Amino acid sequence: MISLFVLSILLSCNKEIKTEEIAFNTTMHKQFNKDITLAIAYTDSIKHNPTQIEYNFKKAKKYFKKLEPILSSLDVENYGFLNQPNILKVEEEDFTDIKIKSPSGFQVLEEEIFVDKIDTNAVAKHVNLITGRLKLIKKNTSFNHLKPYHFLWLLRKAIVRVALTGITGFDSPVLENSLEDSRIVYQSLFTYLSIFKNEFQDENLFKKWQTEITTTLNNLEGNFNNFDRYHFIKNHTHRQLNLWNQTVTDWEVKFPFELAIKNDAISLFSSSTFNVNYFADQSQKKLSSEKITLGKRLFYDKNLSSNKKISCATCHQPDKAFTDGLKISKGVTRNSPTLVYAALQQAFFYDKRAGGLEGQIINVVENQNEFHTDLKTLEKAVLEDKAYVEEFSEVYPNREINNNDIRNAIASYIRSLIPFSSKFDRNINNLENTLSKSEINGFNLFNGKAKCATCHFAPLFNGTVPPDYKESEIELIGVPSTNDTINATISKDLGRYMVYKTPERKHFFKTPTVRNAEITAPYMHNGVYNTLEEVMDFYNRGGGAGIGINQPYQTLPPDPLNLTKQEIDDIIAFIKSLNENMGEY
User: Fold this and answer.
1) With a threshold of 0.90, does the pTM exceed it?
2) Which of 35, 42, 60, 425 could form a disulfide with 66 if both were Cys (CB 3.0 to 4.6 A apart)?
């Protein structure tokens, strides 16, 4: 991943030193050095002062959180190391390049320290790894050449992270200290904005920021389980995105390109939030209405299959949120996943064997039990249709029809399936006020006590990790072969293991979206559960571990959630509020 620092070198030009450069290179850099020095000191103290291990950890984590807005933008890789979950990391580039890495960082250290009996050797090992990494960062981090747009991206990224992972318990797995951690981040943002006070032409806008952050800090006080995340996002995150856009205008900033979230986004829950092209193969040209229309026709065309009886819509029907309602789709071995919001992820199929929509289509075309054809035959079928020939000449001019363009057209249609039109979306965007107390409480539980959002990240509620959206997660949750809680055995499907045969990836599957989940039953890769109540019971027990399936690499915490029946009902009510009418698509 390219860091903002590297981008700044590539994009900067020789100019006279300006106010914002002084802010970056002096005041902001001094603050960074002060915070990282204290983070190093407190982390190192953990192993030297056994009577104050917990105190020193909390202080070290505090200064790490103060660093987070800058560090996560200037040095994404090292930030990721320091804030990774306590889960074995497997990197699979190809059959000759597979790396297995044990995790470290503050999340891992938290789980080592806050236990009944501390393993001092393990603690010392992680302390050394963390301090070593922090010292490296301190030595090598430069603020040279950074421009105002870097700071604005940094600011927005911190705001989005707090809303989508910070307040969910994602990086405070034991202490659930998420609200205090988020307060520390906002205190840093308050400091950084003050450094850039002279950039504001509108003094009142700067004061609005100060007032908003002060109010946010007050709102972040309280109990983790009782925190109202719905109104926090609605009343603070979205307000801050609005202020951010006003600041872009006030500073007269021009961005060189767009990241995953569009530069003018004012909501996290909108069809205008995401830059769809960010998630596509960079060689693909931008989405267009003409491509979408052509792709839709191809999507529903049975003549593209060898037996003229199957189209993409056979397994992905609009009235079922682009699934088919079957436990296992005909001719394959897994449940049909929804295509709604599929564009906003980084890998495809349950085992992530395809890295893009165009690549995924190749698998479907060549599957003997699906289209049972090949790319050349696909081209021929299109060439024999005069209407297609005319359309392709308009949409893809000055070249012959080819399978790349055919696949791109179908993928373009799929990329248009990002409506954000649910009852929940309309309410959090202040378009209506119809959510029940149960639905709001369900969202808060989903993002809090129930820990659903530590894998199903809002607003997509899938496994594509915000705020960078560079990775779609796969998880081992221990899905059983049948709906049996007494003599449960794990599904025989080995999932991701079948791609590279990495033993540590047996039974891993991509995290799907829960948007439209009421419409997309049955659930899990093998369709083992028929109702959302059954799904919630599985998670409430602790996943596979809770029904007797012992998998050492289970990524889902094995402890019961202890959700009450009312809490489960509320979560299901929230999930149902994510339903959308896909008939118009």
Assistant:
1) yes
2) 35
